[in-house]
Write a structure and sequence with these properties.
The protein is of the alpha/beta class and 200 residues long. The chain has helices at 2-13, 30-42, 82-85, 107-118, 143-151, 175-188; strands at residues 14-23, 58-65, 68-75, 94-100, 128-133, 162-166, 196-199. It is built from 6 helices and 7 strands; from the N terminus they run αβαββαβαβαβαβ. Bound molecules: guanosine-5'-triphosphate (GTP) and magnesium ion. GTP binds at residues 24-31, 77, 133-136.
Amino acid sequence: MYSFLSGLYKHLTRREAYYIVIIGLDNAGKTTLLERIKSIFLGVPGLPPERIAPTVGLNIGRIDIGGARINFQDLGGQTDLQTIWERYYRECHAIVFVVDSSDPERIEECRDALEKVILDDTVEGVPVLMLANKQDMPQALKLESIKEIFNKIAERLGARDSRVLPISALEGTGVKDAVDWLFLRVQRNKVNRPPIIISQ
Ligand SMILES: Nc1nc2c(ncn2[C@@H]2O[C@H](COP(=O)(O)OP(=O)(O)OP(=O)(O)O)[C@@H](O)[C@H]2O)c(=O)[nH]1
Ligand SMILES: [Mg+2]
């Protein structure tokens, strides 16, 4: 009886878990985005922007959506930390690449970093979402300009799902749409990258 009930409990509480890495150059707004995702989906205030320091290790955020769990892994973007990104590729179900739209001088650097990511065999077929962040800033490059810049590497994306969306992590605009896009895509890519089944 006990094993039946505990088996039933496990069955009823099982759910799918997905891992999503958040990468991009330093200062792009990745940690601000993670805090914003947490505040929108968990209903608790995230860290205030002035308390967010450059990331050296890893920040984790966990949200539940549509009966599934999504674990976000926000990695540091400084040049010497970018070599760590690939350690997270094998386990990830999607990649978020955050771009600082208000810093046109670093756009080429950004494109080179993204190109390196998508050419990595470990993430073949994994959905990629590019986020044109800081859209609240008057001098920010508009979505069309960002798309044009990244179009040059679009053919290297292969058959995977990919998209460029405008957001302001600071103000929260576009963030919910971005997470909804990701949730749909990781589910659609289940055959290639099955979720991890957890019980809770
Ligand atoms: N105006 C504006 N500023 C933003 C936005 N998102 C982030 N910032 C600012 O950009 C700076 C860097 O933000 P972080 O979230 O620390 O950037 P990061 O990508 O995590 O940087 P690393 O951890 O060094 O890789 C901070 O001053 C943020 O307040 C945004 O949407 N709009
Ligand atoms: Mg950070």
